[in-house]
Amino acid sequence: MTLQVSVLGASGYAGGELIRLVDDHPEMEIAYLGAHSRAGSRLGDVHPHLGGGARRLEPIRSDLPARIDVAFLALPHGSSWEPGHLLAEAGVAVFDLGSDFRMDTPERYEAAYGSPHPLPAQLPAWLYGLPELFGHTLPGVRRVAVPGCYPTSALLGLAPLLSAGLISGPIVVDSMSGVTGAGRGVRADLHYGAVDESVRAYGITTHRHRPEIEMGLEAVVSGPVPVQFTPHLVPMQRGILSTCSATLTRAGTVDTALREAYDGAAFVDVIDAPPQTRWVVGSNRALIHAAEDGPTGRAIITVAIDNLGKGAAGQAIQCANIALGLPEAAGLTTVGWLP
């Protein structure tokens, strides 16, 4: 039986990518498109690349469970905890692309977001869904917090090495993202004239993805892992390139270790040259390159993903496939767009 799917937050970039992927999924079909903004609009008017037809965005309501099996939430921070909780309690499998359920403790959530979680007792019920690291815990799970885009890139590059004891601190992550990572809202600092021909760092020492990266790394070593994280906005539409460095504990090992860690992985490839974002745009792939700098004794790991693919919608579909007992790559066979 084809799974009936709802996308909440269907007017945004990640929501549009979810619709594109679900439309190509052999075991899923869209039953409901919900949005706070653009409710009542035809889908083709909001996302022209998804075609015309009669589909419309509807106001987000609470009477969805009877109609759907799976809900993907692509809502802004602070907007998904209520519908996510209600849908999950009604038996719907919920995959939240937002940040409301990512942190594993109320204390960590409050430290990252500056306010108490509205449902602190529910945080342990949500699984942090990075399939390559925690996929063995996904089958049968009904509440999944999809990782953030920057943490996905950093954790894929660093976690296997840290877990194997091949690197240690200080750990530094410098990431560059296209402007779609900031969402579809109108902001003066994201206008064409503000981003074209310019690169800027932002959120230095304060970005909310830093504690998420630290949480993910701590999960594989069972101890604190401080991370220096600096994100940058670059003048491109989509894609993330993260350069991660850490102290080597054993030289000549990181490339082999990463290749062994991702041997057979459906969407991660360790390659011989530093990756480019355009090699992964439009796909759920992650490309990783490993190097060792002898003079400094540092490992340098470069990771490229599509922030809307492996960093959001693609990863959500991947999590859903595993959780629901479907082939992991179902609906995700599209390769990157080039040129």
Describe the overall structure:
The protein is α/β, with parallel strands linked by helices. It has 2 domains: about 5-145 and about 310-325, NAD(P)-binding Rossmann-like Domain (Rossmann fold); about 150-305, Dihydrodipicolinate Reductase, domain 2 (2-Layer Sandwich). The protein is about 25% helix and about 20% strand. The strands form 2 sheets. Strands 8-9-7-10-13-12-11 form a 7-stranded mixed beta sheet. A 6-stranded parallel beta sheet has the order 2-1-3-4-6-5, with helices on both faces.
Spell out the blueprint of helices and strands.
Layout: E1 3-8, H1 13-23, E2 28-34, H2 43-46, E3 70-73, H3 81-89, E4 93-96, H4 106-113, E5 127-128, H5 131-134, E6 143-145, H6 149-163, E7 167-177, H7 192-195, E8 200-201, H8 209-221, E9 227-233, E10 240-248, H9 254-261, E11 268-270, E12 286-293, E13 298-305, H10 309-323
Parallel strand pairs: 1-2, 1-3, 3-4, 4-6, 5-6, 7-9, 11-12
Antiparallel strand pairs: 7-10, 8-9, 10-13, 12-13
CATH superfamily membership of the largest domain, which one? NAD(P)-binding Rossmann-like Domain
Helix percent band? 25-40%
Alpha carbon gap, first and last residue: 38 Å
Which class of the largest domain in CATH terms? Answer: Alpha Beta
| Topology, number of strands | 13
Overall tally of domains: 2
Which fold does the CATH topology of the largest domain refer to? Rossmann fold
Strands of the biggest beta sheet: in what spatial order?
A: 8-9-7-10-13-12-11
Biggest pleated-sheet summary: 7 strands, mixed
The low-pLDDT segments are none
Structural class of the helix and strand makeup? alpha/beta
Please report the number of helical segments: 10
Rg, rounded, reads: 19 Å
What is the second-level CATH architecture of the largest domain?
A: 3-Layer(aba) Sandwich
Question: Beta fraction of the residues?
Answer: 15-25%
Order of helices and strands: EHEHEHEHEHEHEHEHEEHEEEH
Mean pLDDT figure: 94
Quick one: overall form?
Answer: globular
